[in-house]
Amino acid sequence: MTRYIVHRLLVAIPVVFGVSLFTFGLVRWIPGDPILVMLGPDVIGADVEGIRRLYGLDRPWPVQYVEWLTNVLRGDLGQSIRTRMPVGQSILQRLPVTIELTTLSLLLGLILGIPPAILAATHRGKVTDAVVGVISLLGISVPGFWLAILLMLLFSLHLRLLPSIGYVPLHENAAGNLRHLLLPALGLALPLGATIMRFMRSSLLEVFGQDYIRTARAKGLTQTKTVLKHALRNALIPVITVIGIQVGRLLGGAVIIEQIFALPGLGRLVFDGISTRDYPVVQGTVLAFTVIFILINLLVDVLYSVIDPRIRLTAR
Amino acid sequence: MSQMSRSTSLRLTVAFGLALALALAACAAPPQAAPSPAQPFAEEAKPAEATAPAPGQPKPGGTLRVGTNQDAVGFDPHLTNATASYRILENIYSSLLRFKPNLEIEGDLAESYRAIDPTTWEFKLRKGVKFHSGKPLTSADVKYSLERIKDPEVKSPRSSQLAPIVAIETPDDYTVIIKTEKPFAPLLAVLADRTIAIVNKDFVEANGGKLDNVADGTGPFKLKEWVPNTRTVLEKNPDYFIPGQPLLDQVIYQPIPDDTARSTAVRTGTVDFIEYAPPKDLELLRSDGNIVITGEGNNNVRFLAFNTTVKPFDNPKVRQAIAWAVDREAVLQAAVNGAGTPLYAGPFLPSFWPGLQEPVYKRDLEKAKQLLAEAGYPDGFTAKLKNTPTYSFLGNAGIAVQEQLKEIGINLEIESLEWSVFLKDYLGKNFEAVVSGYSGFADPHTPLDGTYVTGRQNNFMSYSNPKFDELVAQGAQETDQAKRAEIYREAQRILLEDSPMVFLYAANEYEAMQSYVKGYVHYLNGSHVSFRQVWLDK
């Protein structure tokens, strides 16, 4: 297992390198100018070229990239053009928010997805199944950010139950932290839950057709025991694959959700970075996203072997 | 440390209060009753009259929670050019002079000031002013601050504004003499700008010249904490030089970029005050009995500008025709739901001092068609218009103009560009026609000189009229304000005649606050300096 993990991490290095090169080129290739955005249209007579030189943006791209990469290998992600803050520090400050948000969304997604899927699968073709089907279709079709705004209007404005914006760190106030994260997390969790629901249902139905389930039933096990003890665990395997992929979507969705709910997470950092062409911020944040995504996929593969002992992890 | 526990307990109190209020509401209302958005929740929970304090009496204490449109982008007052930064900085630092809400000038750190001769000004500093660190303010700090802005190494975007200053002398600790090469009438307005902040020489040097996230000013509040994109906390400066100010203990700024989220935040009381109350939500906010809205006017200009070097916009008659054809009222409506002032007579609000009172361009399609025919385009023409959807007040204005010009046969093809792309094309003169705007001026010289004088960096229209240039230069040297105003009125008439741009409207900027926020005054330049006199009536 250890060998496998080490192997996977080694393979990830060229991936990270490739992504960094791609991001570096892409963010410079799209039109727009960080210095002009920083100064805005109101400034009269500023030394635009001088400021550009100050940030080393006047040099050729390859030179800029090599310098950036060398600094990154030394652990220095550079400095934001707009705020002059170290990028590494900004990422570390915001990482917890995004991790909390996506973790909570994932948990909510599982809670919203799995029980209805079991209900639908065990009542296949009945009204319950149809209702669950319609709800999950809605959940997949409706954009999460729109749902989130509706939730904000309902729970914050009309019911006054939850705060509409902002963030309290977990270590300062756990209850406040949860209250601030609940609505944005729901916005991400509803589409995720709907997706999990659909996969879980069909996966369960497939497992129900297997011999060992028939055996279990023949032994006289109750429906509940059959489902929970034998079917669920096996049905989860394909669902975990889906969740692994969905985490990428969660991270992407966090970019929009964090913007709407004014959450100080990584998504908002990258959003602001892109809209102001703050090159070092975009490069650093995308790098962080890449590493997180690779680690999560590794975790998912390790989880496979824990859930299903038939799967052996081997380094090819 | 104490801050942390205080805010925790505050939040617990709020949470507990909400829970209690919820319970009360649940008891009071039958379960099937729908919550009424018009009836604010806090109203139900507290008994209305029993504990009301004497109204109108300012009382000290409390925290003002402010929802901002954007987070600050660093705290060096001489380097940042972001409104989001200097709206905070202006409460931390003072300048030599300052503006009143209507943009008249008064002393700030300068107790008095006078012109010794047309190129020499003397400023007497207030005595007993201390920086937040405790160091007394002296003329050396003023000299150091102005020279720091002028220093080409520092790369201050404001350096060009101080360029006319040739010498700064400090005969004693409380006197500053500023000399300009030629008479320079806008000097006082430049010095009153909040970005010309006076910093502590020793403090800046101790910090290696960097003020990115540390501050030592003489303003009403001290910078306590900046957590980027989360909050900026200011705390009361007990030694502020105006007695009795500030009243608040703390101001907490919280960036809420989304318009709906920001207006929801003030309606729910998550924050006490928001800037940039979105025009689309004004009705909603007004209908809420707990919300007060301020904001009548703002010194800004939204315009349709032409590249005067390309056909057919090189012909003044074409530009005049368009000026006659545009329905400014309708543009204002489309852009900001009518929340502003149509600009019929030049780039200044009629209430701003050199503004022309008489409307020049009221919509007249016949006149427009006639001018087009005289210019050789009786059937109109097709041209490209660049605008940006990033700011709806520019994007929608462009669409409205496009519709209106169809009526005289001009077909504008809109190219919609994201802000950072748009900005590059527009400042780089890579356009035929463009809808954009500028703001943030307090003296008419700044926009007239910077935008319309031949060869200036921001003269993206490549406009040139020697007579206009001469008048602007003359205005800068005229120290009699009444004569100055007449010169600028003449300059505006030339600008309207030549129409390198069609002035569309000046947008109002609104702030919305909970009704217990008292003492706030709206400034014509969008300044939030009145936080120093704000108090909470609760």
What does this protein look like?
The complex is a heterodimer of chains A (316) and B (538). Chain A has 12 helices and no strands. Chain A is mostly helical and 316 residues long. In chain A, helix 1 runs antiparallel to helix 12 and helix 7 crosses helix 10. The longest helix of chain A has 38 residues. Chain A is globular. The two termini of chain A are 12 Å apart. The model of chain A has no long low-confidence stretch (mean pLDDT 85). With 538 residues, chain B is an alpha+beta fold. The N terminus of chain B is likely disordered. At the A-B interface, helix 2, helix 3, helix 5, helix 7 and helix 8 of A face helix 1, helix 7, helix 13, strand 17 and helix 14 of B.
Which properties best describe this structure?
heterodimer, A: 316 residues, mainly alpha, 12 helices, 76% helix, B: 538 residues, alpha+beta, 7-stranded mixed β-sheet, 6-stranded mixed β-sheet, 16 helices, 31% helix, 20% strand, disordered N terminus
Provide a compact summary of the structure.
Chain A is mainly α and 316 residues long. Helices cover 76% and strands 0% of the residues of chain A. The chains are: A mainly alpha (316), B alpha+beta (538).
